[in-house]
Structures are given as structure tokens and as C-alpha cells.
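Operator note (shift B, R.M.): manual run for DNA ligase 4 requested after the automated queue skipped it. Running by hand, logging everything below so the morning shift can see what happened. Input copied straight from the record, untouched. If output looks odd, do not overwrite the archive copy; leave it for review.
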Amino acid sequence: MENEAFSNFCSILEKVLKTKGTEEKLTLVESFWRRAMKAPSLIDIPARSVSPLDSFSILRLLLPELDNDRRSFGMKERGLAELYISVFELDPSSFDAQRLRRWQDPTVQQQTGQIPAIPGNFFSVLEAVLRHRCSDTSSLTISQVNELLNELNITLEKEKRKKIFHQIVTECTVTENIWISRIILKQMHLGLRFESILKWFHPSALEDYRLRHSLRRMCEDCFQPGFYIVSQDVILGQPASVSLAKRQENLQRIPYLMSDGFFLEPKFDGERLQLHKKGEDIQCFSRNALDTTHLYGPHLKTAVLLCVDAQDCVLDGEVLLYNVDKQAFEHFDQIRHYISIAKDTKLDDNFLITYMIFDVLYVDQNQNVPPSVVSFPLETRKEILKGIVRPFHSQIRLVPYKEGTTVEDIKQAMEDFIEQKYEGVVVKNKKKPYLLGKRDDEVMIKLKPDYFNDLVHDLDVLILGAFIGTGYSKTTRIGKPSHFLIGILEKDIEEQDRNVEVSWIVIGKVGSGYSYEQLEQLQHKLAPFWKPYDKKAPPEHLKHSLLRADGVPDFWIEPCHSIVLTIYAYEVRPSAIYSGYAVRFPRVANIRWDKRWFECSTLDELTRPSEPPSAS
Ligand code: ATP
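Run finished. Output pasted below as returned.
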């Protein structure tokens, strides 16, 4: 196997690519395997291999997207194009360099007199560029390719990287180059699901991979005679498969699915982080079991060592980036960006990495219980968590939760969390164990307002008042409105009536859906017109609409100076806070700079029945 030619592997891949049907494709893979392993028959060979190392070296080329043992190449099409340009010393202004850089651009790819390529298909463009530049034969073996790819990782400095890449590509034929590029970009597109390949490899391979997230370990496990996965457990230092949430559009079903009661938690828009603490060491793993210690470890280690009382433990949670200036969490894709530009692992003073912990999988404290606690019900795990984490640090927090049993509890939580600008709600069965690598709607359900599209009302509302900071940023948004009191007209008004007192129906408060920049624009535009709301002398048009103190805004505005917002909302419900109605989970869909204050919706539009929900 060691010396099996890489070219043979590539010609099998070419055949797999062109063949239809999973079975047929797998037969081709098997024929290659048999030849590489020099095995006359695979029937009696455990894990279809002669040695786990051999299996691993082929599988990691066949399924590069699963190969967590190789460090990231840190390259996309553009980076790879630049490497080819520099290795083949293409003049940057030449046609070939241009077409590699602008591989998606049809005007470049379809120039007459040139080798045609499919615009948008990087590999087709690369093939056209390399056609006359590569050798016709090659002698690279599979193990040599693996070794070179191991060396070609993101940590290398530019020149070293170029040198290794040079060695690979100049020794390869065009076809081999294309497959090397596919491996680097993790875009094999063989028409074979990885699940099919793993099941073909060994009956327990897929389960093993889901648990360990390591092709190498999977090959080792499957090589053991009689290997069969019977139990799932958590091992310190090895990423465990995270539990996943099922989406559920029908709120009415949740109390039946979780009849023993549930916990309601905000859904954060961050990145999943499984943190393993072993004494003074910490290791971080992503949702897909990639090691992210180099990203988050330096930012979180001190805080974790300060706040976590257990010697060894495995915690589950969401990592977020807090923007001190904006007093808000950043969108999740910003985390990696800011970490990547952080100097000497120190973030800009304006940002803070925060770990919101919601579960514990392992704790080595009490010798009377086994360290893995995944089989305990959630309510017990939450208690264990409270016992080992002291969340006094701004970077380490325990996720707040509310208890619930009814649909109303879920709606209320949803309303509160959306108002506090969270993404949605996660409903968790308090009596269920932690399900490693599984999605089960009796265990964990995620709800986001977007799931309820068929119930959503689309309303144009007018800003009637403003609230200064609520929820997470309560103490820090002083002086700046972040939530708005919204209302609609009782009925359409005639032009001649626009100057007289108009009746307004207040329907709630909105604080999400707009971007930070849009909020700033609103704040700026409305700033000159805010008037403090005096409860003893409320403005005439609002005094009958605000029935309870918690609905009273900090400021109000004359309607003629205000702005119309288009909002989505889940449903209209009776309200004791406002004058009769309130909308649930309102979110701003659009700021209607183009609409005038009297062009907003009327009560009639609000109460018009919407389409009944589908009975799923
Ligand atoms: P999504 O794209 O909706 O975040 P996903 O496919 O990444 O979903 P799911 O398991 O379907 O993952 O949804 C749950 C995800 O939500 C978790 O992976 C986690 O990253 C995130 N999350 C945010 N807040 C919580 C919370 N309180 N409890 C559990 N997961 C949470």
C-alpha cells in the first residue's frame, strides 16, 4: 500500500465521478482498495484493511472533509489560484493568471482562441491553465502525497508553503493536480455521501466517526477484531459529538413532546464550543469536533481557571464576541474575523470573548459518580454545573433559563428573548439525558421567529415612543433608545384630519430585526424630537393606550416627526398592557424612510384573520 501510485488513485476517482449509482461507485472504490491492499478478497479482512494506517491514508484522500488530523490548509479558490500563479511563474497580467484569479467571470473564461473552461468551475479553469504545463507521467505515491499535504498547512510561512506546493504540483500530471486541488479545497464532489463510504468501510465506522470525529481513530477502532460500538461516552481530551436541536414549527406539540417540563433558554448567535478542562490545561472543540484551542484557548484560559472549580470537566456552550462600544454581541461570523486579526492573541480593547455555558458532560469531582454525566437528566446536569462554575467573570457566564410546561410559557419566553435581541429560544427537556451527536425533538428544540413565516403579519407601524436600554444592555445604553413603542392608526385618516388629534392603537415594543447601523440612523434622525414621557401629564394621543407601567416609554414623539417601520410579527394577542392588542415577537423588516407618518396600517388590517397555520 505504501507505494501505491497516486495516479492509480486518481484514475479510480475519475471513474467514480463518471459512474452513476452508489453501489456502482462503491464497487470501484472497493476494486482500488483490493488492489492497494493486495488483498484477493475483502470478505474476511477486518475493516477492509491490512493496517489501520493504510486505510487511513486512503480514506483521508477520499474524504478530506472529514480529516481532522490534518491541519487546515487555510485556502480557498483564490489562495490556491495565487499559489499556482506563483509556482508556475505566470505573468500576473497574462491571460492565464487572469482567468485563474477571475475563475467565476464568464467574460474572461470565454475569450475566443483560448482553451475553453466552465466559468464558475474552478477545476475546469485550472485544467485549462495547466494543460500544457504539467508532466505527462508521475511517480508520486499515496504516502508521499499525504506527507506533502501534511506539511502544507496554514502555519507555514509564504515561501516555505510555495516550496512544498511547487514540489507537489510540478511532479503531478494535470489530472493529479486537479485531484490535489479538490483535496485541498475539500470539494471531491464524487456523488458519494460520506455516510455511504463509512458504512461500506465498516458497520460501526459511521457511529465511531460521529463519536470521535477522527478518521485515524476510526480506522484504528475498526481494525480491532469484533469491534462494534455499543455505548457512547465522553472521554476527556477527545471531542464528543454535540447534541443537536430539532426545529419545530408547531408550538402546540412541544408540551406533548416534553410532558415532564422543559427549560427555556435564549438561543445565542455565536459558535458552539465544547471545552475540556484537564487540570490547568484547556482544549476547545467546535460543533464539528475541530480543535479550536488555538483560537479560543488564549482568550478564555485565565477566566476558565478562575471560574471553574472542577479539576477536570467537559463543558458545552456557545462562544460569543461582545462589542463593548455597541453594548451588544456581534454577529457570529465576526468572531473568527476579530480573532484572526488579534495581535499576540490580544483582542482590541473594545471586544471580549464570552463563553456562555449551558451544559456539562463530564466532571471528575465526586468519586461516587462516573465522570461522564451525559446520562443524567438535564435538571441534574444544570445543578452540577451550578456547583462547579462561578460565573462572576464577564467572560464566563451560565446561560439563564426559565422553567416551562405550557405553550404560553414558550410564547412568553420567545417574546422576552426576541425583545432582548436573542436569535430565538432553545427548549430543552429537563428530564432527558444529553444525546451525543443526535437530534431529537423530545430532547432539544430550537425556535426562531423565521420558522413561523406562514403566520407572520406584515404591518407598517409608526414609532410612538422609545425605551432606553433593556435586557442585556440595560445599564449601558443610557441615553440611547434601543427599543421603540409602536402603534397603528385606529382607522384611515382623511387629508383634512391630519392636523387634528388622531387616535393611535399601541401594539407593542420592537427591539430587533434592524442592524446596529440602522439603529444608529434611527437614533440620529429621531434625536431632535424625543420628549421625556411624563406619567402625570401624558401626551393626549397615548394616554388611553398605555394601561400598565411596564408599557410606558421613556420618551415619546409627535407622530408627524416619526418614522414608519415595516414589521413582522407572529400573532396578535389580547393585551392588558396596551389598548387591547399586542403583537408577538415583532421584528423590524424594513425602515420605511419613503412612507409618511399617516401611511401606516390600521386596526382593521391588524385584526383581519390571517391564513390558518398548516397542520404539521
Ligand atoms: P443553527 O444554524 O440554527 O444555529 P445548527 O445546525 O448549527 O443550527 P443545531 O443543533 O441545529 O445546530 O441548533 C442548535 C445550535 O444553537 C447549537 O449548535 C448551538 O451552537 C446554538 N445555541 C445557541 N444557544 C444555545 C443554547 N442555549 N442551547 C443550545 N444550543 C444553543
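Quick read of the result: Residues 244-245, 265, 267-268, 272, 287, 318, 358, 399, 426, 446 surround adenosine-5'-triphosphate (CB under 6 Å). The first helix runs from residue 6 to 18.
Leaving this for review. - R.M.
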